[in-house]
Amino acid sequence: MKFEATTIKDIAKALGLSTSTVSRALRDSYEISEETKKLVLECAEKLNYRPNPIALSLKERRSRSIGVVVCEIANNFFSQIINGIESVAYERGYNVIIAQSHESYEREIMDLQFLASRSVDGLLISVSTETNDTAHLKSLHDRGLPIVFFDRILEGLETHSVGVDNFKGAYEATEHLIKSGYKRIACLTNSEYLSISNERLTGYKEALLSYKMNVKENYIQHCFYGGMIFSEVEEAVNKLFTQKQKPDAIFTTSDKLTTGCLKTLHRRGLKVPADIALVGFSNSDIAELLHPALTVVRQPAYEMGRAATELLLQQIESKRPIKQFEKRVLLPELTIRHSSTPKIS
Amino acid sequence: MKFEATTIKDIAKALGLSTSTVSRALRDSYEISEETKKLVLECAEKLNYRPNPIALSLKERRSRSIGVVVCEIANNFFSQIINGIESVAYERGYNVIIAQSHESYEREIMDLQFLASRSVDGLLISVSTETNDTAHLKSLHDRGLPIVFFDRILEGLETHSVGVDNFKGAYEATEHLIKSGYKRIACLTNSEYLSISNERLTGYKEALLSYKMNVKENYIQHCFYGGMIFSEVEEAVNKLFTQKQKPDAIFTTSDKLTTGCLKTLHRRGLKVPADIALVGFSNSDIAELLHPALTVVRQPAYEMGRAATELLLQQIESKRPIKQFEKRVLLPELTIRHSSTPKIS
DNA sequence: TTGTAAGCGTTATCAT
DNA sequence: ATGATAACGCTTACAA
Q1: Among partner residues B53, B58, B75, which is closest to A118 by beta-carbon distance?
Q2: Overall average pLDDT of the B152-165 stretch
């Protein structure tokens, strides 16, 4: 709406009523006669009246908008999450304001400040890979801003959070490689700052140990920027191949890591899975397309987005703003596309 | 910000000044003494004052937010566009409010109504595949809402628009297949409602004609929902294979169509490009990953998003709201990954 | 140089 | 059943 939007005043004037009467009539108040109500409603319809949400926000001190912070929008996992977030928000009449951290702590702080200054009613955040403290979030949280973490979760804040069972996903992915006969399974993972990285790494290690295989530190490569910077992934993969015993399989723990790894292998002229096997976390289309070359751990991103938003809105709209307990919702499961990685003997 | 946000009033009270003085001091007005300014600034700093954008919006009748309507967020092409939009908006202190049409005209109208009711200052839109009139946009536009089209452009509205040279991209893609020796080149394309579909289809046809090849209508399949519904793509591809003369190559004109087609071919047990060649529009990671199996036409999505947003903000912030001329900005180019599709003889 | 008051669109409180 | 008024946070004539 711009220029000449109809206001409650216009209706009042047209009908020779007061603004308060019109306001009440529109909200179907019991103290207004049916007759007047009908009149007002008709007039509102005729003038195409739409309540001004900004005036409402000012009055009610709520903006009906929620902030979302992710590292990157152009990432299948996160765009699917945003899809889920948007679907719930839209249903409930909320705006979604999106900010990207580009994996930078500094930028994340700026995002938070921006969103706070835009008076969001709540915050959904998946922290940047550089983030390893809660100071910036704590100050907002202490001021009463509801916050829900998703995927990348930070400890130390009394909030809801939504994520998958990272340990299990990683364990099963690794187990799948082991059962397919691979002996030298490497792991490409994210920053150690991120709890999800550690959970996934632990899953990988535990799987190896369960099958009496050694955990070789040389086979574990951390990519601090989690694949956002391709050269970092390339370097990490290359390092794996400098080992005396070259790995015969790689397990990658994120979307970008999986595609980055594939790209590097391709550049080295290695075919998957003929030359080397690959199992990775991914929500990309490639999951379907590269099948059966690739086994993939797919996160229920859309559902994660929905769940996180539902928790947030529940918190925002809860009458009693004091919620005693933190709640961590582990979403259903990871999906491993079996039958893909060929067995070797 | 929630609970006890500092207001201009608090500062005024603390300093024994009036709110107007504080307001002016904060805006560095010439009529305020340096001394007072310093005092106010210090106090604002101390109390961690942040202007309330909602109050500002109400006063200035602008929300500093722009609406974006796309068919789907979880689509590489559009998420890259949004990335571009977000980057410009963020730089200039604007919110981005995103709505999805899910390729539904009806939903698009609802989105528009939602965004308008949220008082967006401007609108960026890539219309749904079902949309073939401008009525819903025209009413907003006539009321003074700046609108910029991107990618999927609608004629009949005096606005800026940003897109790529669809004809050229399609022509070159088809030419590439022809030069690689393919004789029976099919085309999988979107709804005829969309101008981009027609431009791309024309590019395909013109390329064939330039090389004295016949345009066979049986080789042209339209997918109304542009790949959003997989079954539709599958059916279209299957139809191609019911022809007496089966195609030896397919040209697909959008992201989802390309992945959907690949998926279908895979399900039919056909290898690309060994069994059939494929060249398609795509901004997906697969472009890199399936190389050299796949030749891809990549759109400068990020740049398109940036350009569209710049045009919109320029229009929003222009002092003289009457802009005489429509401007269509054709972005640089399409990128064809050459060397990929193997030559056959 | 600073203060007063009106207004942006809406609702809640208190009249009448 | 309806109206007048204040308030939400901020800016800006207009006064002083």
Answers
A1: B53
A2: 89
